[in-house]
Design a protein that fits this description.
The complex is a heterodimer.
Chain A: E1 2-5, H1 13-23, E2 29-33, H2 36-49, E3 52-58, E4 61-67, H3 84-89, E5 99-103, H4 113-128, E6 136-139, H5 152-163, E7 167-171, H6 172-177, E8 188-190, H7 192-201, E9 204-207
Parallel strand pairs in A: 1-2, 5-6, 5-9, 6-7, 7-8
Antiparallel strand pairs in A: 2-4, 3-4
Chain B: E1 19-26, H1 29-39, E2 45-48, E3 59-63, H2 69-76, E4 85-91, E5 94-100
Antiparallel strand pairs in B: 1-3, 1-4, 2-3, 4-5
Chain lengths: 208, 101
């Protein structure tokens, strides 16, 4: 089992680190965290990914373990600050965490289209270099053309963010509308439900 | 700055002084965009001008390339820069002016 030591890390760092491991196929995973928010977010990650979760109190915090299979309600009994009903259902309440970036167009701002497109590429590059990657990056409408097509600069930055743990969701209806479904370079084909859920779950949403 | 690695006789520090990339800063956004439209196909990428390079419009090009590829690309392009751009080498956190273009 791989153990991530996330002591001293604030939301959403433990979540991002755990998600990265799971995305890379590591399901036998434990995370040491020292705050309740991190425990709740990791439990929600288990629920989202369909992995079983166990929470144990350890010195200085909690050990949240992931494994393939069904969650056992008793395995999360040590989770902090949950009502007994929530524990039974193993569904902690949503905890706002991290930030989402919504890209609903292929330019930043209105005005000259070529300038706007360059500004967008610069913005994505700046995000990728910032050491504070968003929890999610959400593409809709003309924004999907940035990750589906020949625009390598944008694709490289988005790929870098994905490697840093950012979840990249791309509107499937939009790819279909612009006939870009076969050209998707990076990200996961998604839908309005998931994209709006990520916006709702984020502590803040930046719209480019 | 005075920590181990830079001064010692062992392996050079992987971070300090290592050439990361070349950056071309422009006086004019129009020139930056014109250059970008020619040079993106050869691996150049737009980026915001690094804060430490003050004499520039906000848009720069970067080349994550081994030495002189940036300069070669500029020499080979028909973009007229009229001395309005400067080539920098990023070494660690520093940007060293290589020459005016």
């Amino acid at each position: 089992m791989k153990t991530i030591d996330a002591y001293g890390m604030q939301c959403p760092k433990p979540l991002v680190l755990a998600k990265k491991e799971i995305d890379e196929g590591c399901y036998d995973l434990a995370v040491r965290v020292d705050n309740e928010t991190a425990v709740k977010n990791l439990m929600r990650l288990g629920e989202k990914t369909g992995l079983a979760i166990a929470v144990a109190e350890i010195e200085g915090g909690w050990l949240v373990s992931f494994a393939k299979g069904e969650s056992d309600a008793s395995a999360v009994a040590a989770a902090p600050g949950l009502s007994s009903a929530a524990k039974e259902a193993s569904l902690p309440p949503a905890t706002d965490c991290g930030y989402a970036v919504f890209v609903g167009r292929d330019t930043v701002g209105d005005g000259d289209a070529q300038l706007g497109r360059n500004l967008m590429k610069m913005a994505l590059y700046t995000l990728a270099e910032s050491n504070d990657a968003p929890t999610s990056l959400l593409f809709m409408n003309a924004g999907v053309s940035l990750v589906a097509g020949e625009e390598l600069a944008a694709v490289e930055s988005v790929r870098s963010l994905q490697e840093q743990g950012t979840e990249v969701l791309v509107c499937g209806a939009c790819l279909d509308f612009y006939n870009l479904k076969d050209s998707l370079q990076v990200g996961e084909i998604s839908n309005m439900y998931d994209i709006l859920t990520r916006m709702r779950e984020a502590a803040k949403v930046i719209t480019l | 700055m005075s920590d181990n690695g830079a001064a010692g006789g062992g392996l050079p520090s992987p971070k300090m002084g290592a050439l990361r990339q070349y950056v071309v800063a422009f006086d004019s956004t129009h020139a930056a965009m014109a250059a970008a439209s020619v040079l993106e196909a050869r691996g150049a990428r737009v980026m915001p001008t690094p804060r430490v390079i003050s004499a520039s419009c906000g848009m720069s090009l970067r080349f994550g390339a081994p030495s002189d590829i940036a300069a070669q690309a500029f020499a080979a392009s028909d973009t007229d820069l009229g001395g309005m751009a400067a080539l920098y080498a990023q070494e660690g956190d520093q940007y060293r002016l290589v020459r005016q273009l």
